[in-house]
Amino acid sequence: GVLWIGTGDAGLNVYDTHQARFLHYRHNPSIPASLASGGVKSVFTTDQNGVWVGVEDQLDFIDLTQNTLTHYHLEDEKGKSIGSINTIYQDRSGDVWLGVNNLNLYRLDAKTGQVTAFPIQSALSRPTPPKSINGLYQDQDGTLWIAVNQDGLYHLDSSGDRKSTR
Q: Rounded to two decimals, what is the model's pTM?
């Protein structure tokens, strides 16, 4: 009964269909625990009453039971931004997967804040437009399915060791 609406410049809007009202999460520079600044690109609701929000290249977690917001500063192994977050998925073990541009997949350990890269190698040999990961899903066997525009569907087995196309 809740609709989450990410916007380009007005934050995250939440529509509660039961009460027919809106709730708004916005960036406020004078409040550190407000939503990150920028356009909301992705939203993922958890089973534990929480919401992951990708705001450009930043990641926020809203804990709906505690009414708190946590910022995650995401950098790759070289200390650079991971890029714009196109899709978010939290798997059954609690790891948060982030799909970004240029076939880059990252796993965030939400407890430690550690980010691990899982670059995807395209199986296509012909030139294609730029690719980005735009969908993630974990099946009942623990396999993470990765949808890539202009390229296809990949999977990462539950051990995290193998990437392949399907």
A: 0.89
